[in-house]
Amino acid sequence: MIHIITTGGTISGIDNDGENSVNLKSNVNIGSFLESANVSFDYKVDHIFDKDSRLINSEDLEILGNKVRSSIFDKILITHGTYTMSKTAEYIGNLNLNKTIVLVGSFILGSDQNTDAPFNIGFAISSLQFLNKGVYIVMNGEIFDWFNVYKNQKENKFKTLKK
């Protein structure tokens, strides 16, 4: 069983139209996506908030951390905005939980026709089933450890801090 926790971000169809102004372009429902993909694994979806990740605060991180900690499942997928995904991964990683946790997002709005969301979700779910316990960011065909990743804003890619 995979526990999926949604937090918002571009992958959920949240577009930031300016400083502190968030516009929900289209609510992308991961449950509907998985249903239409005819997946054969069991999953549970919990929606905890819809935020541009730049607006996630310490209270939100605590709510997310408590949700992950209290989950009875040992495989957890968190959908998240890319701007602060590495910060959230660090927060979750420092909880030292004995679970496999993958954070995933998209660079292109989840409701856009050319979004990278379906590929990223599929790759993240596949990775989640084979990775060792730990916290990872899985984006655009790459897997990063929570303690060795950052988002290169200029290139709009995740990269390792050190090899």
What tags apply to this protein structure?
about 30% strand; about 160 residues; alpha/beta; single chain; 4 helices
Q: How much helicity do the residues have?
A: 25-40%
- Dominant shape: globular
Cα separation of the termini: 33 Å
One letter per element, helices H and strands E, the order comes to EEEHEHEHEHEEEE
Distinct helical segment count: 4
The overall strand count is 10
> What is the arithmetic mean of pLDDT?
89
Low-confidence stretches: none
Strand content bin: 25-35%
Helix and strand composition category: alpha/beta
Structure description:
- With 163 residues, the chain is of the alpha/beta class.
- Helices cover 26% and strands 28% of the residues.
- It has helices spanning 30-36, 58-70, 85-93, 117-130, and strands at residues 2-6, 14-18, 21-24, 43-47, 75-79, 100-104, 134-139, 142-145, 150-152, 157-159.
- It has a six-stranded mixed sheet with strand order 4-1-5-6-7-8, sandwiched between helices. A two-stranded antiparallel sheet has the order 2-3. Strands 9-10 form a two-stranded antiparallel ribbon.
- The radius of gyration is 14 Å and the shape is globular.
- The mean pLDDT is 89.
